[in-house]
Amino acid sequence: MPTFNFERLEVYQLSLKLATEIYQLTKTWPKEELFGLTNQIRRASVSISLNIAEGSSRSKKDFRHFLDLSRGSCYESIAILTIAKSLKYISESDFELCYQKINRITIMINALKNSIK
Prior knowledge:
Blueprint: H1 10-26, H2 37-55, H3 60-86, H4 92-115
Helix pairs in contact: 1-2, 1-4, 2-3, 3-4
C-alpha cells in the first residue's frame, strides 16, 4: 500500500519498471562498457523516478524543475539507447520497445508538470 503521494503516480510506477528493464537489458552488454554506457543508462533511467520522488517533496515550482530533470533523463536514455543500437548492443525491437516506454513516460511527465499550477 503506497504511503507517499508520489508512489500513487502512474508515471512514477512506469519509471520504476523502466529502470528495472534497463538493468536487465544491460546485463548482456560488453563488460568493457560497465563504466561507460552501461553505467550511464542505468543512472539516467533510475534518475527518472528519483527526481519524481524528490521533487514531490518540494514546492510546486521546485517540483516542476525536478520533472524537467526527469524529462532530461528520459532524453539522455534515448540517446544512449541509440548509441547502443548502433553498436549492436541491443536489437531494433528492444530499442523500439524502450523508446516507446520512454516516450510514454515523457508525455506523462509533461502532463504532470502542466497540471501543477
